[in-house]
Design a protein that fits this description.
By secondary structure, the protein is an alpha/beta fold. It is built from 12 helices and 9 strands. Strand 4, helix 4 and strand 5 form a beta-alpha-beta unit. The two termini are about 30 Å apart. The structure holds NADP nicotinamide-adenine-dinucleotide phosphate (NAP).
Length: about 300
């Protein structure tokens, strides 16, 4: 077995992402020698104890990070500023502070200024997930073949970046370094806008008169069902993502609404060619995803 990347890994928040990392650490043994876990509620901490993938459980985030050479924020991004303020005085000199948040400019804005001198800050985002949340939902293959995007601020210690990259490679991910603003724009189109559309279409269906709503549920397999899977995601996490990637999301939404308007015009005026072209482009994108093994 290779040397563990870290001696002590502290996970702040232990839902889908944090508990997947903890399970991998337990299974492989070479992410860190010891995994310390904290969360917000006693209920979650009790459950983590039962699940048995943590070496130590701490109710207080300050105690959880003390002596850790890697600290990973795995809570919703809206909680990061308060969490960073709470742990900052307890971070060990030379340790690496990283995160898994779905937005990156906001994390750099909220956490960056609170990182003490001598602590390396390597923001990261594993682009992998499901609609489930909580410590029971994690699994060891979640990150396999998926991207982990790292957005270190200029001047970050290359060794700290490499250690976080190696941690994600050992989780099965492919690693890429990205500018935070670019990350937020790309994620707005591939993840945040599709979620916004899924939540909205479910709301639209739910607003229908009782009788039609029944029909929506009965015949959901005709397309609606795929939206409901995405729409089943955690409300707090998605509230925080939308509010913390506001600009990029609004820009992509504006572009989408223009294109939807063009499609609506084609339908109204019977522009069969336009409609066929759009459907053909969709099929091409799906085929490319299958070829890239990202479907
Ligand atoms: P999750 O399953 O909902 O778990 C969130 C965890 O954070 C829970 O353990 C929760 O503790 C804890 N938490 C919440 N508020 C907290 C606070 N104020 N202080 C301390 N702990 C707090 O979430 P997740 O899906 O793992 O997502 C975690 C992060 O990963 C988010 O930033 C998200 O943007 C990012 N991400 C998610 C996905 C995805 O598909 N789910 C993919 C990539 C990245 P309690 O249980 O005690 O409340």
């Amino acid at each position: 077995m290779p040397e563990p990347v870290f001696q002590r890994l502290a996970l702040i928040g232990i839902g889908l992402i944090g508990s997947s990392v903890a399970r991998i650490a337990r299974q492989r043994g070479d992410l860190a020698r010891e995994v310390v876990v904290t969360a917000r509620t006693q209920k979650t901490l009790d459950r983590v104890k039962e699940l048995g993938f943590a070496d130590r459980i701490e109710a207080d985030p300050g105690r959880a990070v003390a002596g850790a050479d890697c600290v990973m924020l795995c809570a919703p991004v809206g909680a990061f500023a308060d969490l960073a303020a709470a742990i900052a005085p307890h971070l060990a000199p030379g340790s690496v502070l990283t995160d898994v948040g779905s937005t990156k400019q906001s994390v750099i804005r909220d956490v960056g200024p609170l990182v003490p001198e001598g602590v390396h800050f390597v923001p990261a985002h594993p682009v992998a997930g499901t609609e489930y949340s909580g410590p029971d939902s994690g699994f060891t293959t979640l990150f396999e073949g998926r991207w982990a995007l790292l957005t270190p601020p200029p001047g970050t210690d290359p060794d700290a970046i490499e250690r976080i990259a190696e941690l994600w490679r050992r989780c099965g991910s492919m690693v890429q370094i990205m500018e935070p603003a670019h990350h937020d724009r790309v994620l707005a189109i591939v993840s945040h806008l599709p979620h916004l559309i899924a939540f909205t279409i479910c709301g639209t269906a739910d607003d229908l008169a009782d009788e039609s709503r029944q029909e929506v549920l009965r015949f959901a397999a005709s397309g609606f069902r795929d939206f409901t899977r995405i729409a089943a995601s955690d409300p707090v996490m998605w509230r925080d993502i939308f509010l913390n990637n506001r600009e990029a999301l609004l820009e992509m939404l504006a572009r989408f609404m223009e294109d939807a308007q063009a499609m609506s015009r084609a339908v109204r005026w019977g522009d069969a060619g336009y409609i066929e072209d759009m459907v053909e482009r969709g099929r091409k994108i799906r085929r490319s995803l299958i070829e890239l093994k990202q479907a």
